Amino acid sequence: MNKNEVFKRRMKKTGILIGSLLVIGVLLFIIASSGNLTTDDRIGQMISDYGKGQENAWKNIEKNIAKIKEEDQELGAVWENIMNFWSYANTEMEVQLDKVPENLPEDDSFCVVILGKKLNDDGTMTEELIGRLELGLAIAEQYPNCYIAVTGGGTADKNPNVTEGGLMGQWLLEQGLSENRLIVEDKAPDTVGNAANTFSILKEKYESVDSVVILTSDYHVARGSILFHSTFMLDAYKTGTEPIEIAAGVGYYTGEESYESFELQAKGVRSVAENCGYFKAEGEGLSEDVMVGIVAAVIGTVSGIILITLKKKKNH
After folding, report:
1. From residue 195, how far is each of 122, 156, 221, 276, 302 by CA, in Å?
2. Domain 93-261 has what CATH class?
3. Where exactly are the structural domains of the chain?
4. Rounded to an integer, what distance in angstroms lies between the CA atom of residue 74 and that of residue 76?
5. Of 64, 130, 141, 165, which one is least surrounded by beta carbons within 10 A?
C-alpha cells in the first residue's frame, strides 16, 4: 500500500471521527443546556434582553417564560405578567399629564401613590415635587374616598432630620387632606424600596385597597409603574396574597420628551427581583443562542486544528 492510500484511509477515519465528535458535542450541548440554566438565569436573561432589545427581544423572552413554567407554573405566570406589563408601560399605557384620571372607583378600594423626589440640600421640597403634590391633591378632591400615599426617605444632603414622605404628608395636611386618608412611607430612599414598603403597609393596614394610581413626574411614569407592578406581583407571590393592580399612571408635566432609559428600567427590575429575595439580580447567564455559538466555534476551531495538523504531516 503506497503512502497516498495510507493517507486517504487516515483522512477518512479522521473525517468519521470529527463527524462523530460534532454529533456527540451537539447532543451533549442540547442535553446540558436544557438543565444548566436556572430559573434565576432565565429571569436575568429576560430582564437583560428587554432592557437591550425591547420589543425585538420577545422571542427569547417567551422561550424563557415557557422554561420557567415547566419548573413552576405560577412563578412563570407571574413573570409573564411582569414582562407584559413592562412592555405595556412603555408602549400602550395612557398617561394622564397634569390631569385627574376619569372612571376610577368612587370607594376606598384604590390609593394614589405620590412618589417622592430628592430634596434640596437644606431639606426643602423642590418645585417639581410640590407640583406632584398639587396634582395628587386634585385627585383626592375628586375622589373623596380614596387614600393618598406619599413615599420617600431622607435624601437632603445637609439636613438628615427630614424625609420626603414626612414633608409631603405635612404639606397635604396643611392643604386640608384628612389625616385618616394619608399614608406615609418615609423609610426608603429609592423607588424599589418605596414599592416594597408601600405593598407591606397596604396589605397590613388597608385591606380594602386593591389598586393604586402611580403619580410621579412625566419622565418617571413608566419606570415607576413597572417597579411598583413587579414588586406587587412578586411580593404577592411570595406571601400568597392577591396582587395590587396599577390602575393608572399620572404624570406631572416637566417638559421631558421621553421616559427614563430602558437600561435604567432594567436595572430597577433587577433590583426588584433581588429585593424580593428570589433571584440573583447580578447574574444574567448566557442566552442559549450565545451558548450554541460558543460551542460551534469551539468545535470548529478544534476541527480546524486537527485538519491543519494532518496536512502538515502529509507534507512531511
Report:
1. 26, 20, 14, 11, 52
2. alpha beta
3. 3-88+283-315, 93-261
4. 5
5. 141
